[in-house]
């Protein structure tokens, strides 16, 4: 009994113990390796442990290089601090500000309801509509906000289709204790953001807008001629569909974020690491990444839809309601929910139209600046002067003074008109409240770590000890790394995961570095198996209707599909887009024999490293 009490006490102070003991455990590194390399490795491993265990807040761990690199003689502060606001950080910041403006005026909600109106209310098609909408929105918004916005809409539609959820559960259990079917969302304690607050905010907002209507059905009708067994089977099938809706939204949000550089932090970390280790590399920007990642996202989304639709209800498009008239009535009610919610939004106002215009302009200008496969508009400026960050900041800056109400010429001559100050599309207070500044620090911490590894010589030291990896065939190495990172990120932040592993992959690559770095980066977003893997998974699980085994069963296959899709993309259009068949001039080998400069990856099929 005393031992169990002691373990409980230790568990209560586990984070403090990690913070205290980890620096002591890693001390031998300072004496067993060359001076600067050992010190840098000490800091890198210390940060890796803190990130993986979240012993300190992620953003606080990200700031450790500011104090440790200068005091340990690894890097002066004047070289460390600028890493926290590189142009890559400004690109991400501009994307976050644009997203906050879209949320402010509800444009994302109008897009979501419009898509659902188009796809209809048949289960398989409705799941596809949910996934398409969530993936598109998460290309520009955070996947957390997308999930929090979409789940209440899904629940409202499902209630109109199947009735009250508690009644449905009772029908599923046929009189057994329904509470055994529900797991309380204890994973909420692992959240990295204020997920429950965000969820409540979204739910309250949508309740005010009519998104959460009262229950439209009372479950099984009395005297409708169905036996108890038929009621149970029908309810079980409908409950499966309900779970499919809950699980498809966070998965689609995670997949959608991979399609744009600003969609998820790991994509931007890739750009920052490339600029740190390979300053001459200008192959990847917003346009070229979008051209590569969008087809990958669509293929994965389609396969994911087939799997989820098959697993949760089958690929038939009919509701599991025996009587034709009852099925038709349920479909009409569900369609009415969507129509009613969309109608309550009213006509598109001036602010929504303006945000839509700037949103499209933001995307088009980023895509066409220098897409590589055609000449972009950046040729009108001195080479290297205009980056994606410049483009993004120009567009979002306009939002802070562009009026949200349609300007009126007659206002100047109407003494009765209101003389109150006009309201811009976005206020700084709104941007300040909605932008997750901790992610900016997390990005900066990753870039600072990369800079320290490079200048301390740790990168070269690690590269020299990873020569055996050159013997592994490139396609196999890429698949193994992608699968490993996808599994690792189930237990750690995808941002922290890619910060830890990407530098090692960059310096160990004996092929075109992009051939290993791109799939690893994309794979870090494929965290589907556990509730605590990503904030979207946690939001869906916290609803209390999903079991851990539901997420594991679905997520294992999703991870496999993701790894296969990334491998397909890298070995087909990725080879052509990024010239992966040869070792690039912008990536001089680090501590590797000069013969590797002439390495060649033979065309598919039979892609192998040739030394």
Automatic annotation (TrEMBL):
Residues 205-230 are annotated as: Disordered. Pfam families: Na_sulph_symp (PF00939). Keywords: Ion transport, Membrane, Sodium, Sodium transport, Transmembrane, Transmembrane helix, Transport. One of its GO terms (cellular component) is plasma membrane. The keyword Ion transport applies. It is a multi-pass membrane protein. It is found in: Membrane. Residues 215-230 have a biased composition (Basic and acidic residues). GO terms for molecular function: citrate transmembrane transporter activity; sodium:dicarboxylate symporter activity; succinate transmembrane transporter activity. CDD domains: SLC13_permease. Belongs to the SLC13A/DASS transporter (TC 2.A.47) family. NADC subfamily. This is Solute carrier family 13 member 3. It comes from Gadus morhua (Atlantic cod).
